Amino acid sequence: MTFNGHAILEVLTRYGVDFIVIGGFAAVAQGSPIPTNDVDITPERDRGNFARLSAALTELDAKVRAEGLDPMQFAHDADSLAAVQIWNLTTTYGDLDISVMPSGTRGYEDLRRDAVEIEIRGVRVLLASLADIVRSKDAAGRDKDRRALPVLRELLARQTRARAAGPDAPG
Fold first, then answer.
1. Do the beta carbons of residue 134 and residue 79 sit within 8 Å?
2. CA distances (Å), origin 113, targets 44, 58, 131, 140
3. CATH assignment of 5-163, given 2.60.120.1440, 3.40.50.300, 3.30.460.40, 3.30.365.10?
4. CA–CA separation, 139 vs 130, rounded Å?
5. Is the pLDDT reported for residue 162 higher than 60?
6. Residue 42 phi, psi dihedral angles, 5° rounding
7. Over the stretch 93-143, which tens digit does the pLDDT of each residue have?
8. Which of 83, 85, 124, 166 has its CA 20 to 30 A from that of 75?
9. How far from 11 is each of 28, 52, 104, 126, CA to CA, in Å?
10. DSSP classification of residue 84
11. What's the whole-model pTM score?
């Protein structure tokens, strides 16, 4: 299967799911050179939103993903999705990870404050800010996150310097 993050985001958006893109995909969309092969999201914690997410996951033919095992079908609805903090899924278009409360954050409401809205090939999505991505990866403490942090911190520092310099700064 070829990873197509845009297609995953398009389906979620078409179903009206309120979410923030987090992790590597959000970092790449903001200039990170570190490639990713999945989409990570944090959904808004609302029963109606989880119902829309369930409908989108059905269209995406989402299956539970676990290392060393074949992807497994699973029945889901708003309540079952809301009852679990992390879902590692594979879909028709590639891997989708759902984290209700990413490490170092208080979830959707926390990430929404500084989220960046962008358009990716006609699909408008919210991305976690680089500062929030750094905060979450630092708190997660996984090896792959520790390896990415120097690059992400430098990207964040450049972004901060560019904002401080203002739009009229030579560039």
1. no
2. 13, 30, 12, 21
3. 3.30.460.40
4. 14
5. yes
6. -120, 115
7. 999 999 999 999 999 999 999 999 999 999 999 999 999 999 999 999 999
8. 124
9. 20, 11, 28, 15
10. -
11. 0.93
What are the residues whose beta carbons fall under 8 Å from the beta carbon of 57, sequence distance 6 or more? 76, 81, 89, 91
Q: What are the residues whose beta carbons fall under 8 Å from the beta carbon of 81, sequence distance 6 or more?
A: 50, 53, 54, 57, 87, 98
Bridge-partner residues for 127, per DSSP?
21, 116
Smallest Cα–Cα separation from 94: which of 36, 53, 22?
A: 36
* Whole-Å CA distances, 105 to 26, 27, 73, 108, 154: 15, 16, 30, 8, 21
